[in-house]
């Protein structure tokens, strides 16, 4: 008869232990999570080969000096070497996710999949075509999530699929920069560009909802980079810092950075709503804006040269070493002697050195990996 009370007490203690394990912070739970693979979505800041498969030799990233620092050849990445998703995978100790268009068998996809496409947009092609705007690549976030559903169907039963998604890190973004850039190149006003924001955020909401519905337990959602710090746009909208419209501390275009900040505020608000709707899933915002502006404002602190807005790979002769008519990889362009001293690789994308620093910042703030993982990729 004494066994019954004892068993009851043991069960109560077990329940309390389990309940206590669930009362920690989201970052605490994330830091203890072990991932087996990564599924990622986005644009050229995340793409490791899909755009190269689509565009072939037409893509500037198919030509040297792209990839020279780490791969010694063009690798499908818009950089001289590795990008953020590479560093995140290394920090987590998981395989490089297979570019979706390079995958051939279910085994390729079990290692994780990268659905990101350079030039891709959050919004569907019809959105831009209806406004007379020309796309870079007709691949939207909806296309990428459709590819994800196709992959899931190839990975076995629903039970097996759930096991895979529950043990994976999902990275949804960065995406949306190209949506705004298409509008800028199409001479749309800043007022009209701001009307894009709710629809872009809605597209990201749909993508995050789709992966959570598939069983994702941890989703990292990077925000927008500071558009006004992009050498391409600084060249497109020339002016003096002291003439207004430019941040005197960073040298970046304020009205473009205001647009990025608007995007990020709306993104954070949307993610807060998703967390309330899905309390069992860690949905984490990655602040790329802050990671990049920290480097731009204090380049020497992170080992970069004093003029962080100057491009490493370009034709030269202009304020930022960027020429719209001759981008990196084109005839007449050259790369700097030491890309590790530069933040911008080609005027649009970052050098491997900057990508490493940005990754360190994201991993530290999001707590998706322990300190040992960050040390593995050379974080201070």
TrEMBL record:
This is GDSL esterase/lipase. It comes from Urochloa decumbens. Residues 1-19 form the signal peptide. InterPro entries: GDSL, SGNH_hydro_sf, SGNH_plant_lipase-like. The lineage of its organism: Eukaryota, Viridiplantae, Streptophyta, Embryophyta, Tracheophyta. Transmembrane segments: none annotated. One of its GO terms (molecular function) is hydrolase activity. Keywords: Glycoprotein, Hydrolase, Signal. Belongs to the 'GDSL' lipolytic enzyme family.
